[in-house]
Amino acid sequence: MTDIRQTPQYAKYMRALGWKAEKISGVYYFIKKFPIIGHFVKIQRYDAVLNEHDLKKLSNKYKIFRIVVEPQSINNGLWLMDNKFKQTAAYSPSKTLQLDLTLTQKKLYQQLKKDCKYSLRKNIEHRIKCIEENNIEKFHKNWKASVPFSRYVPSLNNLTSLKKAFEDNCLLLSCSRTQKLNKAGAVFLKSKDIGYYWFAFTNKESRKNLVQYKILWEGILWAKKRGAKKFDFEGIYDKRFPNKKWLGFTHFKKSFGGYEVEFPGAFSKKNFIKNYKLVKNSWRF
Predict the structure, then answer these.
(1) Computed over its alpha carbons, how large is the radius of gyration of the chain?
(2) Hey, CA dihedral for 87, 92, 96, 100, is it positive or negative?
(3) What is the C-alpha separation between 207 and 146, in angstroms, rounded?
(4) pLDDT tens digits, one per residue of 2-55
(5) How many domains does the chain have?
(6) What is the extent of the structural domain holding 144?
(7) What whole-number distance in Å separates Cα of residue 285 and Cα of residue 277?
(8) Are residue 128 and residue 81 in the same domain, yes or no?
(9) Residues 29, 138: one domain?
(10) Residues 83 and 120 in one domain
(11) Number of H helices, E strands in the chain
């Protein structure tokens, strides 16, 4: 299945954030210009084989100082290493968790772990309700108010651009019981056959009342209702590239069941143009 980062909607979103998005041989390339040093290129979650001809076309058009590639398949990762790309920090998760949404809602519920079922029952007891938030500015304000200053919060422009790009396939979900509890929410996306848990936030009071379980469960059901066949939790802890900060939310996500999916990670090459040599009218690394 095509990853969201290789769809026209995601390309529209990236263009709104100031990136160029070009599609060559079925693969989207995202390009950003930096003064003096040139262009940075990233290619994310493609499921094809990059070839010298396409890279030549790109290098002829832009002065590329660095390229980062995040393939879906191990074979494509091996191709990159054979061509002198080096492993680097990833822009998208190297490991994730996915649910089979072709299962009935009853079976999806049955595969939830005990702590997840307990939390959802508590949500019912506390009369926690989820609502679709159409006021993006309000959603953004609540997000900023619910997390520490050091935590990343996408800009209002970022959220607005995301909603415009995905339209009805972008859900901003908030949960409420009291005014304090209203500062909890998540952003869900759907692209073709896959639903995504894209962003999420909770304040201290919401976490205490286990509101995050209700939000995610409702997002999963929303994606299923819209025809998604898979649900992607967008990242869990990966011991190959350890980040202990990911352990907590990995436990939370795994309480919903599902199966793990690994990607090769990210690969980078600097001084991209200088690494090419023209030999008999063909480009090679």
Answers:
(1) 21
(2) negative
(3) 11
(4) 999 999 999 999 999 999 999 998 999 999 999 988 999 999 999 887 877 888
(5) 2
(6) 95-262
(7) 7
(8) no
(9) no
(10) no
(11) 10, 15
Asked if residue 245 lies in contact with residue 237, where contact means CB atoms within 8 angstroms, the answer is: no
Q: What is the pLDDT of residues 187-233, one digit of tens each?
A: 999 998 999 999 999 999 899 999 999 999 999 999 999 999 999 99
What is the pTM (predicted TM-score) of this model? 0.92
Give me the chain's average pLDDT, please: 90
Q: Report the CATH number that the domain containing residue 242 is assigned in CATH.
A: 3.40.630.30
Residues 57, 24 contacting (CB under 8 angstroms): yes
List alpha helices for the chain, DSSP H.
Answer: 8-16, 52-61, 74-82, 105-110, 114-125, 136-146, 156-166, 204-208, 211-225, 247-254
d(CA 96, CA 195): 13
Question: Do 183 and 252 share a domain, yes or no?
Answer: yes
Q: What is the pLDDT of residues 156-173, one digit of tens each?
A: 999 999 999 999 999 999
Q: Return the H-helix or E-strand segment holding 36.
A: none
pLDDT at position 284, please? 28
Residue 5's identity, in one-letter code, is R
Beta pairing, strands 230-232 & 194-202: parallel
Cα–Cα–Cα angle for 223, 227, 230, nearest 5°? 60
Please check whether residues 45 and 140 belong to one and the same domain.
Answer: no
- Residue 54 sits in the same domain as residue 108: no
- What confidence score (pLDDT) does residue 108 get? 98
Q: Is the CB of residue 12 less than 8 Å from the CB of residue 169?
A: no
Pick from 240, 239, 259, 236: nearest CA to 249: 236
19 and 104 inside one domain: no
The total of other beta-carbon atoms located within 10 Å of residue 284's CB is 13
Residue with tokens 């909607």: 9
Q: Are both 255 and 270 inside the same structural domain? A: no
* Mean local confidence (pLDDT), 74-78: 90
* Tokens, residue 266: 């990210």
